[in-house]
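Suppose a colleague, Dr. K., hands you the sequence of a protein chain of 414 amino acids and asks what its three-dimensional shape might be. Before reaching for any lab equipment, you can write down a predicted structure in token form. Begin with the sequence itself:
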Amino acid sequence: MNLQESIRKILKEVRVPRNERVELYKDNNIIVVVPLTHRALKKYANECQWCINSDSYDWEDYHKGQHAVIIQRKPKKGKKGITGMETYGEIFILSRLDDGMWDWKTATDVLGYDFGGSKEKALEYYVNISNDINNFATNIVYYSPENGIYDQEDNFLWNFDYEITDIPNITPEVVKIMDDYLQEEEEMSLQESIRRIIMEEKDHTKLIKGIIDSSDIFDYKHFCGVDIITPEERSDRHNYFNKDKIPYLIKVYYVGGPNSKAWPRTQAIQNKELYLMDELLEYIKSFVPFNIEMMGSHVNSCDGYDKLMKRKYTMDDLQESIRRVLREEIEIPTYIRRRYVCIDEYITKLENGEETIPIIIRQLDWYSYQIILTAYIRSNCGDKNGYYEPELHSKIMDEFGDRLHKWYEENINT
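The predicted structure, expressed as tokens, is then:
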């Protein structure tokens, strides 16, 4: 079967079910798809040397829903190199020699060519052929804005300073379509992860308070604070029978009583208070999956609010539970080992300011914020179940905790 026939087979005979892939783009030159199952990946990439083709665990763990496969509809035949092998194969082998992964004998034995016994000549040739994108196998390409670009031979094109726009027929429009979809999937995964983190806590009061502390309501000069009443407390007070359906009640306290600085309460002040409560409710609901009600209340001054409040919002219980998790000695060597490079590189980018955490809950102390931080790191490194897992959280903090805490102190706790 020749090259043209192989590509036709992929495009015509595969017939991947719609629920197993997303077709992002198609024109006369290329088709761009996102495989949603490992079976779909293997069908689209059956001509590729990617390790994920044969390792479903690796694909599920690192890549599922986070990459596109770009297929050229008019494939080009690979160039032959000096060794008689295709140039993309020569590049793959010589890159191993250059990186020190293979020794001279192994590389030349596989190539069937020894460059006159000169390693220097071999590496010079390697540099020359790798400087031309046409020497790579770009008929089928793996692309992820986070994980990079691989040709069919599994050459990592970022290592050769190539970008996705260097691939034939990839326009800025196609790049935007791919990036918008893949990054949106990542953001949706992150929001779900944070919701799951929150659901790990039986009492959500402290976390609701932390979310409120990160909101803009504190900018309003007449705002004093909130009182969060749990479903259990409301049941006790009002004789509810089904506690599962009782929402949390958030009482928002403003200065506004008689003889206060905000008296009389004009229509403009009332409208402002209602607007702030609506905004706060929507902000909280973007993080939590349970029901919430809001109501406003007024005090003569914020000192009155402080005296009124009987519950103190501390993080002691949550801190202690996290400390207990961190003390557990549960070994998961494979998890950290497989992701070490990704986690290390991502933290380095955080430290250098090249990356940011898009959801920053200020005023959560370190012991609370680190849960969200490690969940986002796991999501970034391909773990689709990036919500709070005590054992995995502990392992990440054991290995990278000092660096993450320093980043937190310099960027969040300021």
